[in-house]
Amino acid sequence: MRKNSAWRYALDMRPSAFDLLFNPRLNKGLCFTEAERENYGLLGLLPDAIETAETLLQRARLHLSQKPNDLERYIYLSELQDRNERAFYQLLRSDPPQYMPIVYTPTVGEACQKFGHILRRPKGLYCSIRHRGRLDDLLRNWQNREVRFICVTDGERILGLGDLGVCGMGIPVGKLTLYAAVGGVPPESCLPVILDVGTDNQQFLMDPLYPGIREPRVRGADFDSFVEEFVQSVQKVFPQAAIQFEDFHNTTAIPLLARYRDRVCCFNDDIQGTAATAVAGLFGACRMIGNRLCDHRLLFLGGGSAAVGIAELIELQMQREGLSASEARARIWMHNSSGLCVQSNPRLSAHQVPYVKEAPLQKDFADSVAFVRPTAIIGASTVPKSFNERVIRAMSVINERPVIFPLSNPTSKSECSAEEAYQWSDGRAIFASGSPFPPVRFGGKLFVPGQGNNVYIFPAVGLAVFATIATRVTDAMFLKAAETLASRVTQGDLDVGLVYPPLRTILESEIAVAVEVAKLIFAEGFARVAEPEDIDAFVRSKVYDPAFIEMA
After folding, report:
1. How far apart, in whole angstroms, are the C-alpha atoms of residue 265 and residue 336?
2. So what's the architecture of 272-455 in CATH?
3. Which of 28, 175, 480, 519 is catalytic?
4. Which string of DSSP letters, residue by residue, matches 243-304?
């Protein structure tokens, strides 16, 4: 694994004692050795005890155990990241299933809602539309010149929580934290960005602690030109950086991806990452059932960018399995807020049109299930409890093994819980959700519900792009990521209901996925480095290692 070059560079500059203690990238707390304390003037600035990294983490775990709720634990971990970055990442890697739900979904949703009230040290870059024409200068204000990943949002559609304005900064911060924690991308290469174009959230506009522009959200041509300036500024200031568009509204996200995907190195995790995660889970479901994806009929609840992204990747895989484009599309149905997406639906969006059928309008989702007779239902609606008992029992009448994927985040927006899916299907459901649910015992059997979280995909794609300095990110890369992730699911995993590898092994899964995606990047000619003889070893050499480094 890679020993952080930025850390080594900082040491070469002969930091002062206070640099070492107050720069989170250099601080080791009580893990500084006797020689390091002597050589760098740290004597007297620390208690005499010299600790191991495990002792330091033990103290952090103790602090966390004393916090009354997950939001307080989120705040504590954020502060740990601000003062001792390597300890923070060591802690996250020590138990991903325990800490990922705190630093990202579902806790990050509440953290964004209360961002203005819990704000400590600002993280990332705040690009206000009031600074239009000066974005080159704003980007150059970022201290690190070797930025390779920029996760950017305008805060309009944060998870399933709606317009949170500048408080949506918690999402890019959390996403990039996972890049380093489970994807191995060095944290100094990552830059969280919020495009502050105002907000239509009236509660925030009236809140004296709201830290963003107190004006209605800018839209239309002014918004488009501001994003264009941002993208062009990135090309000038950070020419090797990939841009991850995150949590833009459906009406913005799809056009943005279409506009920039063939111009710059970029992707949209809500569209492409969600798609790859869902398809990987469907591959697992196919193994349980003993069929192929092209044998399925799928019904989506929700017709936004996430649903369309999943549908398009499913369509691509079905074509690879032998169906024509029209045959694949005929097997994919959508149900939006007005009902089944058919010709008579009064609220069809442009991106839903390819999946519109000539059929009677069904306004109730359970009626759509009865009419379409799907083998799998996929929730991308953010409408909680919409996979109700009637829906799941109808799926269980139609299918011996109904595939139930409520993928909406956070937990409060999930279409159903794991317990509901297993109970109402008499233990026959193949289940995966966007938010974590605990194991369920039903009918004398233990079920371990899979979490179809994008964290399985985007950090791995990120590591591959980082290693190869790729010029583009393509749908084929996400499909390769889905295939590789699905291949890591064991028969033992499937036997307890898991369609994804266990989260405890996520770092190794991410690296394996990154290696295969990197091979595709080289094969398609998108790499900006020479292809090595051993791509596996090459990718692994780039993985960030948060272990403390002994100083000379």
Report:
1. 31
2. 3-Layer(aba) Sandwich (3.40)
3. 175
4. EEE-S--HHHHHHHHHHHTTTSSEEEIIIIIHHHHHHHHHHHHHHHHT--GGG--EEEE--S
- Residue spans of the domains in the chain: they are 52-264, 272-455
Active site residue 104: yes
382 and 413 Cβ atoms separated by less than 8 Å: yes
Is 67 marked active-site?
Answer: no
Helix/strand/coil for 465 = helix
Residue from 40, 74, 104, 179 carrying the catalytic annotation:
104
Q: Which amino acid is at 325?
A: A
Query: Residue 15 to residues 8, 514, 545: CA-CA distances in angstroms?
Result: 11, 35, 21
Q: What tokens does 486 get? A: 């699905």
pTM value surpassing 0.90: yes
Distance CA 159, CA 408 (A): 8
Confidence of residue 409 (pLDDT cuts 50, 70, 90): confident
Comparing 52-264 with 272-455, is the CATH topology the same?
A: yes
Query: What does CATH list as the number for 52-264?
Result: 3.40.50.10380
**Tens digits of residue pLDDT in 344-362:** 999 999 999 999 999 999 9
pLDDT of 50-82, one tens digit each? Answer: 999 999 999 999 999 999 999 999 999 999 999
